[in-house]
Specification:
This is SDR family oxidoreductase. The chain is an alpha/beta fold. The chain has 6 helices and 11 strands. The protein has a single domain, classed as NAD(P)-binding Rossmann-like Domain (Rossmann fold, 3-Layer(aba) Sandwich), CATH 3.40.50. Helix 3 links the parallel strand 4 and strand 5.
Amino acid sequence: MENILVAGANGTTGRKIVHLLNTSQYFKPFAMVRKKEQIEQFKNQGIGTVLADLEDDISHATIGMDKVIFAAGSGGKKVVAVDQDGAKKLIDASIQSKVKKFVMLSSLGAENPNEAEDLKEYLQAKHNADEYLKKSNLTYTIVRPGSLTDEKGTGTIKLEKKLMEKGFISREDVAQTLVRSLHDDAAVNQTFEIIEGNELIGKALDKVS
């Protein structure tokens, strides 16, 4: 089993990722949390935790980890400090720890933030983090979903390297896509966009693998 660090584990999407990993036969999740009081909920489920704040030194966070999922977000409050610089710090730590794969949760629109009508600062931060990851020597997958919903997942998506439309997608289906992207042969050094659709997630990922 591979040890997977989940940054943003306490977020809405992050908790779904951790749950999926915890039921996987391939992966063992480690929830990266910012506050000591967040440890208990994961401990109760038998899930390991790493105490680390993306705004501080996080060089210890990736020690002993095989792969990383970055699903953290500031909710628009500290986009440069968390979404951009926090991601960069975790990428640096991953390089030091010789992490085998880094899976980034990005956003639709991060390719060309200047074209966005709103959320420009957020999309620019995501863009900068994505570019930093691409230029690192890490094996990566960058997943750019449309607007996230709390609807039940369908297990199906629409995936393209560049979608010609905006759209919505459930957090569950995003979590599933991120976890599947952890596999060694899935979407290696690829960036792609996803919204709700009719293609099975595994089959959709084959297109970029």
